[in-house]
Fold these 3 entries.
Entry 1:
Amino acid sequence: MDAPVVRGRSVGDPPPPPATGARRLLAEPEAVDAVGEALAALHGTDGAPGTVPVVLAATDYCVRAADAFAAHCDDSARRLRPSDSVALEASGLLQRFTALTGWQGPGYVIAEPDGDGAAALRFARGLVESGRAPSVYLCEVLRRADTGAFWAVATRVRQEPADPPGRRSTDAGDHPPAPAGPAHGLDPVTSRRSAVLRASIRPSSPDPAEEQLP
């Protein structure tokens, strides 16, 4: 797994500019920008970057979009707009990345009850280990609880020839959360929710499920 790329708006940063044009059709353009910039930083490091699969861990975005849609439905003084329903489609998070790089897919969106990227990380590894893709872009979409700002944590998952069979880095499922690194700028609380950041700090940890085998 490559070193993570982290993009987002920190406390004290100016708010994003108002959405205009096509961006108005997207709920949370800030999330779209963070995802696009993080993935674009990885793009071009593979032999055929335009076809590298992207896996999005988008629980935070899906919850926010669903809550906003429900609030608009309950608001008798406001008419529903096309953008309200379009925002529910998490694949829109890849729109800026596609525009910046010409990426053509495929893409997968995973949302899980705990809001953690562990399932998306396992899925990305499964695509690589099964031989379906030589590498996969994995991007977690995380929303800060204190500011509501969206952040993106992205990495490239690829087969590591030096890994012993049956051993791989993990999302640290039964390990204490890893502290936030000062380099990426993400706050500690949100950082601890990132499976990608936890796995990058423990590159040699075994899969907890494999540890339970006799």
Entry 2:
Amino acid sequence: MKKADLNNQIFRDYLKHENNIESSDEVRLQRKNSTIEALTKYETLEVAEVDSQYFGWIPNLWLERGMTSQAYGLLVLIVVHGATVPYYQSQVAMIDNLAIRRLLGLSNANRKSKIGSLLRELEASEIITVHDNFIELNREKTANYQGTGFTKVYASTVKKILEHMQGMRVLNVLASYLALRSTIFENYDGGNLPVTMGSLQRWASSKASLSPRVHSDNLRWLRENGILAWIEAIMNNEKHNSCYYYGELWDAECVVSEVLSDLNGRILRLAS
């Protein structure tokens, strides 16, 4: 990732602002160092190009079906295993109950019925059709969702989550990943950076049937385990509350750019 431009006017204005704050030199230096550290923490990050090339997609209309959070998490797991099969003229996922349990590291026989129950929940919502050795996704081509849109979830990010966690809780974390991704619109050419703010997450949590508290805990887990690129900002308001900016690891540069552009306006300073 290229270095953040710390010589631009926005950053110089920030330093001037910090220097004028009535506070001890030690406190001012600490705040400036925290901001610089946050802006430069991804400069040595190296991400494989392939990580951004494989993704599954979920029509946004499916986020209005009101399913359980674990069903939404299982849906994420299914769509990243989807592959186009011309015979079906739709997408199918080469995955079944046993493969799902293996991915989640579930060995208890009683989890077979739990996964089966979640699959039936997805079927009842007319999202999937379960076959013997694969799962069919009941959706049309992406072009048919121009009005309502769709949400992309990346296979490499799902893989990282599975590498750090096993068990049924994975499904809730995947549901949080889906909720966060639903607030990101990727349009590099149109000037829309693939970045989302934490202030949107209370609203987003309900999309995947998560409580704001559980969603917040899951996002903290994603941050602590380095699954996503993130920067914590101290907001320029009366409360000076913190807010997180998120993006995929390969979009860390975009996260930094967005944060830097908001510095002195929406953002007062950064936390490291």
Entry 3:
Amino acid sequence: MKKKQLAKLKQQFRPSFTDARQQLFHKMEEKAQEDYQLNLRVFLNGTEGHEMRIELLQPTERDQQIKVPLDENFTTVVKRIQNQEKGLLDRFSANLVEEVASYWIPEQTRSTPTIATTDGEKTTAFIKEIESFPKFTVKESDTSLEIYEETGKEPRLLASVSKVEENTRVIESALERKYKLKLEVIPVIDAYAAVPLAER
């Protein structure tokens, strides 16, 4: 009887799903400030809760906001936080903040430069870095570099970078939906796309 009463008591004090999600947002804001000196605001876009917005409240040369689609995996983690799984709130918020920080301050989260400094090696360095991500491959044609993800059926196109025009790249929706990876992969693509053609 006592065990049942204790379980009931714990259930009463368990945060709601909305409260657990808000705890995660607040924890992300705290860790961003403590670990990276980034002043962030994390919130839901709209009332349906399918997209998280992460806004940087200080000057930046990049976009001021990151849009992150929320999938079933995110919902599952929030439910685990709601169930007060030990250490999960800290771990998950730290992982998300690390990925966010790599977008605005990539030099703090990457140990090596995104693009090699020696002329003629930059394309090779770009391909190696992209292919360091799990299941990612790069196919080169006369006009572009195409980034694919190996799947069970056939390779899925994630992005392409022009070899004939500077600052020209296409990010497919398949990569945009991968909110964890896109914060790491897209900055690599953007950096390479900005390299002058003569220096690649």
